[in-house]
Amino acid sequence: MHSLDTIPAYVAISFTATTLLSIWLFFKATNHSKQTLIFLISWAILQSFAALSGLYLNTSAVPPRILLSLLPVFIFIGVLFNSQKGKAFIDSLSLEKLTLLHTVRVPVEIVLYWLFLHKAIPQLMTFEGRNFDILAGITAPIIYYFVFVKKKLSHKILLGWNIVCLLLLINIVVNAILASPVPFQQFAFEQPNIAILYFPYNLLPSVVVPLVLFSHLVVIRRLLK
Questions:
Q1: Residue 73 lies in a domain
Q2: pLDDT digit string (tens) for 119-135?
Q3: Which residue from 5, 95, 139, 206 lies 20 to 30 Å from 22 (Cα-Cα)?
Q4: Quick check: pTM over 0.90?
Q5: Membrane-spanning regions, if any (predicted)?
Q6: 153: in domain
Q7: Rounded distance between C-alpha atoms, residue 165 and residue 182, angstroms
Q8: Range with the poorest average pLDDT among 17-31, 79-93, 181-195
Q9: Is-contact 101 212, C-beta < 8 A?
């Protein structure tokens, strides 16, 4: 398997900073809930140790170990949306801050492009391929400004934007999984998505993507109410 040793340090540093920024922005959206911050940092540390131990490098396991890092996240999100305490937490979040959180998708896309150049992910996972997620990051501050600051755009526009950006996220997540070196890999066999098997890039599927996904789901639920 291709090693990530040749990737410059600035790529890992940039992505680590982006992950911390994602956690910080979500912390701000919770109105500075220390409990949430401790939970997110603890989860990130746990995932970091898992990757550093080489846990995710066994790509022949069924189900793939890297996907097991996602399972607890989706279960937890499901619990939040279907419990009284979870719904109360969801309804307490700042829609403004959750909208701004999506700006992290710009540095994420830049890091993905660097990883492609160093043959750690396929081109289809970048904005030169099938990944249009950078559009969500670029438009996030614009939506924030005109919906919440200037109040020129309605919440229907905010709802539509969240739905479109959620679909962009689902698109790249599905492509990233099917381009990974797992038993059901469908494409990118010459240059598969191996970066997510290593620290710190494993924090993309286990921390950053869940925060982005959850932010969309929260806003959509709140606006549909």
A1: yes
A2: 999 999 999 999 999 99
A3: 5
A4: yes
A5: 6-27, 36-56, 62-83, 129-147, 159-178, 198-220
A6: yes
A7: 27
A8: 181-195
A9: yes
The tokens for 186 are 């469908």
Which residues span the domain enclosing 106? 13-224
Residue 1 has pLDDT above 60, yes or no: no
Distance CA 205, CA 71 (A): 11
List phi, psi (to 5°) of 68: -65, -20
Q: For residues 67-88, give the mean pLDDT.
A: 91
Confidence of residue 142 (pLDDT cuts 50, 70, 90): very high
The pLDDT confidence band at residue 2, using thresholds 50, 70 and 90, is low
Helix spans in the chain (H): 9-29, 34-52, 65-68, 71-81, 84-92, 95-101, 105-117, 134-144, 155-178, 203, 209-224
**By CB neighbour count within 10 A (0-12 exposed, 13-18 middle, 19+ buried), where does 91 fall?**
exposed
Separation of alpha carbons 122 and 117, rounded Å: 9
Q: How far apart are CA 204 and CA 13, in angstroms?
A: 13
Residue 159 lies in a domain: yes
Q: Count how many Cα atoms sit within 13 Å of the Cα of residue 108 in the half-sphere of its side chain.
A: 30
- Within a domain: 85: yes
Number of structural domains, the chain? 1
Count of residues making up the chain: 225
CA distances in angstroms from 99 to 22, 42, 158, 164, 193, listed in the order given: 12, 24, 9, 13, 28
